[in-house]
């Protein structure tokens, strides 16, 4: 087991005033707006809980399939198309491949191979 080291807490003296001021200039307003989290679906300001997916933040109620509008819950599988979420069913409906024998969507990994038939004379 690795040796554990004790952390030392050091008190710092603060000579500066770190209070906030609200300004009226357009530059300050722009700086504040750029720090606000915006929902990746509805483009509204996010306050409170949010989901992070597809390199974006979303209101929990906004994270839904862009095709059928069904809510995608945390932990639920989904696909990404054009930086937007698609539920599994819509993904296969819109972009899936169907089996030529049973007419069901092929889910998971697709394997492709050629089958050759050889007839030999006996």
Task: Provide keyphrases for this structure.
122 residues; little secondary structure; two-stranded antiparallel ribbon; 4 strands; elongated
Describe this structure in words.
The structure is a single chain. With 122 residues, the chain is low in regular secondary structure. It is built from two helices and four strands; from the N terminus they run αββββα. It has helices at residues 26-34, 88-95, and strands spanning 51-53, 56-58, 78-81, 84-87. The strands form two sheets. Strands 1-2 form a two-stranded antiparallel ribbon. β3 and β4 (84-87) form a beta hairpin. It is elongated and about 75 Å long. The model is unreliable at 1-9 and 14-25 (pLDDT under 50).
Strand order of the largest sheet: 1-2
Shape: elongated
What fraction of the residues are assigned to beta strands by DSSP?
A: 5-15%
Question: In DSSP terms, counting alpha (H) and pi (I) runs of 4 or more, how many helices?
Answer: 2
| Radius of gyration using CA atoms only | 27 Å
Describe this structure in a few short sentences.
The protein is 14% helix and 11% strand. It is low in regular secondary structure and 122 residues long.
Secondary structure layout plus pairing:
Blueprint: H1 26-34, E1 51-53, E2 56-58, E3 78-81, E4 84-87, H2 88-95
Antiparallel strand pairs: 1-2, 3-4
